[in-house]
């Protein structure tokens, strides 16, 4: 949070920017109100960079399109039914929306759009007071009817209207509370938290795609753990991601194991820290963060209380991958994301066998081959999965993973491990063995691939000799 004077100075600079000044003059010239709204105004006071420019006006969509067409190089009206027109003005993409007063009809999964005529009323129907501020232009006047500046100073998320009204208008705002908490590091107002817990079932009227969008934004925020705790504590997670609260396993007085829920949140946080160190400057890795959060969701279904006070979770990796695939599909994640996350969950225990004893070069090659393009993610997830308080054990596991990464690098340099293939391709296999395309060629290819993984590069002549020997043994 910057000082009030600096925040106002940043707003002045925003109003004077070419794109804002151009739009403000055009709408004023046409006789309409115009204002910068929401995130850009909030971010000016927070000292954050503004990535998206959102504007509000009393002009209706047809008028907006008419006004922006002469001053823009492109326009799009996919959001016309919701009062939004997009355009590219002075090289920047902007969205301009008619004052709105949206609400759900109580049964459908999409909001019923109603246009309004007042900026103050429009702001009063927004999600949180910190997002309900506007800068009127070209007048350059701050409009803050609900106390957004005060809530920014207090670092609190509060709804402009009563939480029941705000969340009733759009239940997705309950997820936004968690997302903004993680994104901004703010606390959620007690009244809003109480309403979220009480109204959580209303989230079921919101489409899976919109829920997924908020979950993605939360996981890509600066501190998703803060938002996830809010979702679990208010039981909102029970509605759309029940596998996470299910990690809070009951502790048996005779059988003790680590808190799987707290462990999973710690793994997520450690994965994010490692991601920033190992891949600085890159965008948040959604696949990695989903895998870190969900990597142990198979444990509740596989927990077994053993004699003597032990607890086992046999095959929780396989069960967890299956549960993750089902949940991600229900949330409408794309196929590639779902496949990558489930692969990481299924493979996240593989390394711990290495820590118990030295792997052969063949085992290391298979580890790399099976991880494929997710190898770096698997490195990060496996390292993050070490949450033991036993310093000696933690040091041993770190050393073991340092060693496996060193061996992977050495083998990659020697054998171009990233592109492992048999030394004879399918055409050459057919020539050597006198075969036509079919299952026998596939079996021979797999034999040569296993040979390459087990023994490394042999050379084409030796590979051909071994292939003939193998074929003779097949009868």
From TrEMBL:
<dbReference type="GO" id="GO:0000049">
    <property type="term" value="F:tRNA binding"/>
</dbReference>
<dbReference type="InterPro" id="IPR003607">
    <property type="entry name" value="HD/PDEase_dom"/>
</dbReference>
<dbReference type="Pfam" id="PF01743">
    <property type="entry name" value="PolyA_pol"/>
</dbReference>
<dbReference type="InterPro" id="IPR014065">
    <property type="entry name" value="tRNA_adenylyltransferase"/>
</dbReference>
<protein>
    <submittedName>
        <fullName>CCA tRNA nucleotidyltransferase</fullName>
        <ecNumber>2.7.7.72</ecNumber>
    </submittedName>
</protein>
<keyword id="KW-0548">Nucleotidyltransferase</keyword>
<keyword id="KW-0819">tRNA processing</keyword>
<dbReference type="InterPro" id="IPR043519">
    <property type="entry name" value="NT_sf"/>
</dbReference>
<dbReference type="GO" id="GO:0004810">
    <property type="term" value="F:CCA tRNA nucleotidyltransferase activity"/>
</dbReference>
<feature type="domain" description="HD/PDEase">
    <location>
        <begin position="256"/>
        <end position="399"/>
    </location>
</feature>
<keyword id="KW-0479">Metal-binding</keyword>
<dbReference type="GO" id="GO:0000166">
    <property type="term" value="F:nucleotide binding"/>
</dbReference>
<keyword id="KW-0547">Nucleotide-binding</keyword>
<dbReference type="Pfam" id="PF01966">
    <property type="entry name" value="HD"/>
</dbReference>
<dbReference type="InterPro" id="IPR006674">
    <property type="entry name" value="HD_domain"/>
</dbReference>
<dbReference type="InterPro" id="IPR032828">
    <property type="entry name" value="PolyA_RNA-bd"/>
</dbReference>
<dbReference type="InterPro" id="IPR006675">
    <property type="entry name" value="HDIG_dom"/>
</dbReference>
<keyword id="KW-0808">Transferase</keyword>
<dbReference type="Pfam" id="PF12627">
    <property type="entry name" value="PolyA_pol_RNAbd"/>
</dbReference>
<dbReference type="GO" id="GO:0046872">
    <property type="term" value="F:metal ion binding"/>
</dbReference>
<dbReference type="InterPro" id="IPR002646">
    <property type="entry name" value="PolA_pol_head_dom"/>
</dbReference>
<dbReference type="InterPro" id="IPR050264">
    <property type="entry name" value="Bact_CCA-adding_enz_type3_sf"/>
</dbReference>
<dbReference type="GO" id="GO:0008033">
    <property type="term" value="P:tRNA processing"/>
</dbReference>
<keyword id="KW-0460">Magnesium</keyword>
